[in-house]
Each structure stands twice: as C-alpha cells, then as structure tokens.
Description:
The complex is a heterodimer.
Chain A: E1 5-16, E2 19-30, E3 34-38, H1 45-53, E4 60-65, E5 68-69, H2 75-84, E6 86-89, H3 101-111, H4 116-129, H5 145-157, E7 163-167, H6 175-192, E8 195-199, H7 203-206, E9 211-214
Parallel strand pairs in A: 3-8, 3-9, 6-7, 7-8
Antiparallel strand pairs in A: 1-2, 1-4, 4-5
Chain B: H1 3-11, E1 16-17, H2 18-28, H3 37-49, E2 53-59, E3 66-71, H4 73-84, H5 94-107, H6 110-136, H7 141-166, H8 168-192, H9 203-211
Antiparallel strand pairs in B: 1-3, 2-3
Amino acid sequence: MNGMSLLEARRVTKAYGRTTALDAVDLRLGAGEVVAITGASGCGKSTLLMCLSGIGVPDSGEVWFAGARLDDRPESVRARLRRTEIGVLLQHGQLVPELPAAENVALPLLLGGARRAGALRAAGEWLDRFGVGEVAALRPGELSGGQQQRVALARALITSPRLLFADEPTGSLDSVAGEAVLRAMMTAARDLSTAVVLVTHDATVAAYADRELHMRDGAFPGQVVPA
Amino acid sequence: MSTGHVLLGLLSRGPQHGYDLKRAHDSRLPAGKPLAFGQVYATLGRLQRDGLVTETGAGKAGGPERTFYDLTDAGRAALAEWLHTPEPPAPHLGGTMFVKVVVALLAADRQTAVDYLARQREAHMARMRELTRDKESAASLGEVAAADYTIAHLDADLRWMQQTVARVDALAGEIAEDATAADEAGGDETGGDETGEDEIAEDQTTHGEITR
C-alpha cells in the first residue's frame, strides 16, 4: 500500500444479476486531491461511489482508506467512518425533514456523542460559512434547493473529514445556484485539505476537479492509474 | 479543418482520381460543403508537392483518361498523425471533429475513432479546468461571462462526443454500407461522365450535376 494515497480501489468488481456494474476498477486518490468521476448514466459511477464510501461492498477486489482495508470491515465500523472521517453529499441533500437545519448539520457530531450545545454552535458556524446562517431554525421543506444543498454540505464537512464523496451535488440545482454550491464546496475542501471524489455526468461540474476519470461500461478505459 | 487530410483519408482506400475523390467527399461528409473540383486539384497538387501523394499513372475506366493518385508512406504517416491529434479546444469545432471521426472510420477502424474521441475529451476537459480556474480569479463579471460562453460551447462538444462514442459501432456500419454503395455506383457514373481533360474549368457545371 502506497503510504501517500488516501483512498485506493484495487480491481473492484460488482455485478447486479448478470449486469456487470464495475469491472475490475483501479483507482488511487492522494490526500487533499480532487478527482471527478464522470460518465453517462448507467456507466457504473454511482455503484463505484457506493463501494468506495463503504455504503456498499464490492463482489471482489479491495477498497483501502487511510492505509486500512475498508470493504471487509463490518457495517458498524464503516458507518462510524462515514460519521467521522468520510463525508457524503448526495444529489438531494437527504436532510432529515423533521429537524431544523442546524440540527441536521449537528447530526454527525451528536451521533458521535458530542455535547448538544457545542454541536449546535459548530453547526451554526458552518451554516454561516456557507452563507445560510439565517436558515438555522428552518426545516428542510422551508428551504430552496440551493439552501438545502449548502446545509447538506455543512453536515458533510462538520467533522472536517479527510475525504468527501459528492454524488451529483448540483444535479437538482440551476447552473447559477449549482456554481455557488460547487465553489463553496471547493473552497472549504481546500481549507480543510479534504480530498474530494466528485461524481457527475456534467463536464462543467467535473471541471472543478484536479483531474477526471471517465467511466465507460464499468471501467476507466485506457486510463493510466497515476502513481 | 483540412481538406488535404480528408483527401488523404479517402485515398487510404486505394488509388483514386480527382473525380472519385470529389464524389466520395460529398457523399460521405454530407454535413460539409460540397468540394469544388478546383479545390480538389489544387489540394492534390499541394499534397504531391509535399510528398504525401503520388501520381500512379493515368487510366481509363470506359471514360476519359484520368490521373490516379495514391498515398505515399509520408502521406499515410501524416494521416495517422492527424487522426491521433485532438483539435485545440475552441467554440464551433463541431464540423472538424465530425470529419475526423468519419475519416477515422473510413481510413482506419472503430478503435481509432474511439481513441481520437477520448483524446479530444481529455483536451476539452483540460481547457475547461483552466477556464473554471480563470473564473475563480476573474477580476470582473465580464471575464466570468466570457469564460462561461466558452465553457458552454465546450460542454456541447463533450455531449456530442459522448453520444458519438455510444453510437460509434452503428456509425461505422453505416459508413461501411455507404462506401460499398458508392463503390458499386462508381463504375456507371464514371463511364457516363463527359468531363474533359481540364476538369478545373468545368468545376461549376459538374458540381451542379453531382450535388443533385
């Protein structure tokens, strides 16, 4: 295992029935690096994200995170990692509808056993940072799409994770709102030295990354895995 | 876009004379402007001067005598290099990229076309990353809007590339069919053609007949 890489996929393979979603995918990501995984819908990029983030597990192959094997750990361990060292941002934010924005953001800290007052104070700071401090007391249903994504971004980054997975993070936003969310995400990731795996079908979104891995039919054809 | 490279691509299928080349060009690249005879012979002259094509003598196929041209090794190398090289990413490239894909399928194979599109994608993405970074450091909204304009056009190109990669097998099949049909039709048409020695002079009239 290369000590420099934060995340590594080795020959990761996954099938749904007779359909091969991932065909022996190799990938390596350095600390603080931002990579875009692109490709048409159905190319396997969302399945790859599930395997890399430990939400799903590959049929064969290995996923390594920060020098340790991830894919063969129990779900409880993988879930804890996703609350602490790995942030996940999905297309529709997946905020808890019953909770105000600030509590949504504080959730990873509260689930990790943090004191409520401190967690909510930190949540407020993150909301301010993303320009949505004024919506702290509102529930997700009362927010615009762009505001929801900023709240979800604050929740994904509140633990200062080493790695952020973003799956079509601007997919439900218009281009101006999407650009604002992307810029906020990239600036924060740079400040925290958080590596980002940005999954998108949109080339204008992928252009925010340091490099692009273009998927076709469950693989990166012709791609040389950088050392 | 270079007419010279397109002619090299058409000649990769074997020696042809100017009339054949004009006809093949117009039938296989319907999106482009029909090629004038004057342009065909001027371009062939330039390719010959540069050592990329050579005359292989005159022949008659039941009609007037014509000069046949063939690729040289240097011509083959120049064609391969052109097919290998992505175009500098800029707005309004569509026609050139399409021509390159068609010529790749005609002169080489499916993989050459797919490889070209992959390299073109990389070139486009590298330029889009530059423009995206430029936007972050832009001094004015005008600069941002200018960058956005180019980004939107490159994005349109990228969508087209993705669609074309997905359809490359079908496109290759269609081009192979067209080529066969054109070859079969070629004998009759050449025989019936009354164009004299100086084809350049008859450029316009002949051109009119062929495009109909």
